[in-house]
Amino acid sequence: MSRTFAYIRVSTIEQNPENQIKEIESSGFIIRSNRVITEKISGSMPINRRKGFIQLLDKMEQGDVLVVTKLDRLGRDAIDVSTTVAKLENMGIKVHCLALGGLDLTSSAGKMTMGVINSVAEFERDLMIERTQSGLARAKSEGKKLGRPSVLSGIESKEVKNMLDQGQTISAIARNFSTSRQTIMRIRRNSNT
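User: That's the sequence. What structure does it adopt?
Assistant: Structure tokens below.
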């Protein structure tokens, strides 16, 4: 006999999980209180690091049903949500999302919906990468220097090169300029190219 569970997540202490519980009840799902897992944790936290969700997985068995109000309760992004839904499906657990009309995400229609959501997320990611690359190319063509500013000035970098040529150790030079060994090694590497 299948059991129904609910996963309720709110991001801050000020938010009230009762709204999600009422939404689940008003949609027709009857869930015993010991099967409602409530968690106050940021959505940016990966689901496999959420204590409440891990506790939920320990309770659930094949044939059970998990209800969430929205997809973002299950993960940080579309890929995270898809991975979580696939894991639950492999365990024999159905996942219903109220924001998608109570659709079972493990059904054929649910998988299609998740596929569309993933495609849109991938498209948005690709657009963001294209915009970033275009902006970097434009900045480069305008002569702007990209990356972090140098820790040492041009004069200091020349002094470092001279000290290296004189055989001083990387550690001693780093202490002399109050910087890291990695900075000195980077200057050495760049002077050899």
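The chain has a mean pLDDT of 88.
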